[in-house]
Amino acid sequence: MSTDDRTAFLHEFVRAPFTVGAVAPSSAALADLVTAPVPREGDPLIVELGPGTGAFTAAIQRRLGGRGHHLAVEVNDRFAELLAARYPQVDVVAKDACGLREVLAERGHDRADVIVSGLPWVAFAAGTQDDLLGAVTDSLAPHGVFTTFAYVHTRWAPPARRLRRSLAARFEEVLVCRTVWANLPPAFAYVCRGPRVPSPVHALISG
Fold it and tell me: What number is the average pLDDT over the span 66-95?
């Protein structure tokens, strides 16, 4: 990652810590781990949530090799502008990820094959976590895969435990991948398959 990326990330963290959630971009090693489910063949629809300065974006683009459609949803306007300029082949949308289903519909897409998240889950309140995960499961194909990551030092914090419970409730399979100690701070990935739709929260409300 470049010095400019580190500077931009730190600046945005200081300005809006609850939407950025980290002081530095993710490492290449963590990006490779989180984006591993992106297929290397076919024409998949890949959705990236909270791409920031593009650590996961670059890894997704390498795996796609010019195939498929890569949609990146970023709520931070500065990051969205930076990303669009750096990756003109990526469809960058400056919106809240909670509106993912509407973003897909506006672009004529149905459901994503893979959703990769760089969102700061521990920084979100319970209601926001629920809304975001509901948007994910509502936007993911039945065969689709959802990947995200968490920092080791926050693993036992209440928001992190709540995230694990929510993932288990919303997906048939949740795998906890190895820790990337070279990341700053060290992090691990979740790989989730078999989205349960409608989501538990939506079902409770409709019932």
Answer: 96
33-69 burial code (b ≥16 CB/10 A, e <16): bbbbbbeeeeebbbbbbbbbbbbbbbbbbebbeeebb
Q: Name the helix (H) or strand (E) containing 206.
A: helix 200-206
Q: Which residues pair with 159 in a beta bridge?
A: none
**One-letter amino acid for residue 137 of the chain:** T
Q: How far out from the chain centre does Cα 64 lie?
A: 17
Burial-class residue 14 by CB neighbours within 10 Å (0-12, 13-18, 19+): exposed
Contact 162, 129 (CB under 8 A): yes
**β partners of residue 149:** 189
Report whether pLDDT(9) > 60: no
pLDDT digits (tens, 9 = 90+) for 153-182: 888 899 999 999 999 999 999 999 999 999
**Whole-model pTM?**
0.84
